[in-house]
Amino acid sequence: MSDMDTGDIASTPEPPYYAVVFTSVLRPDHDGYYETAALMAKLVADSPGYLGHESARGADGLGITVAYFTDEAAIKTWRDNAEHAAARARGRAEWYSGFELRISKVERAYGFRRAD
Amino acid sequence: MSDMDTGDIASTPEPPYYAVVFTSVLRPDHDGYYETAALMAKLVADSPGYLGHESARGADGLGITVAYFTDEAAIKTWRDNAEHAAARARGRAEWYSGFELRISKVERAYGFRRAD
């Protein structure tokens, strides 16, 4: 999976659900990367079983995107999206010096939101 | 868990293992945050069952840190570290406008590293 535009903390339901953790390092030359990432962020939101995503990339080029899905079937559906597959191929060929993708099952979660 | 300094893609073993995904938003005033984050990155590396971590924070203040551990016992050991507990308390009181922590079991993983 390619990573996506930055936003807020995802509002996810009670576990269990799935988290796809995509960690990547951008090459210095990555023309078109951010445009494609923004498009993927829009597309995944319409993919069945999508629950939300979070994305951050630091000044050093290391980025982490976590996308949340209801189950493994939802992850497979997004993986098989044709535009997503094309973006992944371009990422591997042009944009990334390396990445790691980890598919995990969220067992517990808790959060904190400041009241003020 | 507080988040940590930025680095490289973590080298993790074959699954299964655990991923603790910590997503946070910093308040505009967060004096001492980065110093504490760097200290936590050093401490966690010595915690039993630690496998590695990755961290990224974008210009908008949203950060994601993922720490990898062998099992739930290792996560509990790090949670119970006294300096880590103090850092978490300070994060909640001073640094974060919000966070979400998700404990997940990594079932599958694959990566790519460019040869050139």
From TrEMBL, chains A, B:
InterPro entries: ABM_dom (IPR007138), Dimeric_a/b-barrel (IPR011008), Jasmonate_Hydroxylase-like (IPR052936)
One GO MF term: monooxygenase activity
Top-level taxonomic group: Bacteria
Domain ABM: 19-89
Gene3D superfamilies per the UniProt record, alphabetical: 3.30.70.100
Keyword list, A-Z: Monooxygenase, Oxidoreductase
Residues of the signal peptide: none
PANTHER family: ABM DOMAIN-CONTAINING PROTEIN, BLL5343 PROTEIN
Protein's name in the database: Heme-degrading monooxygenase HmoA
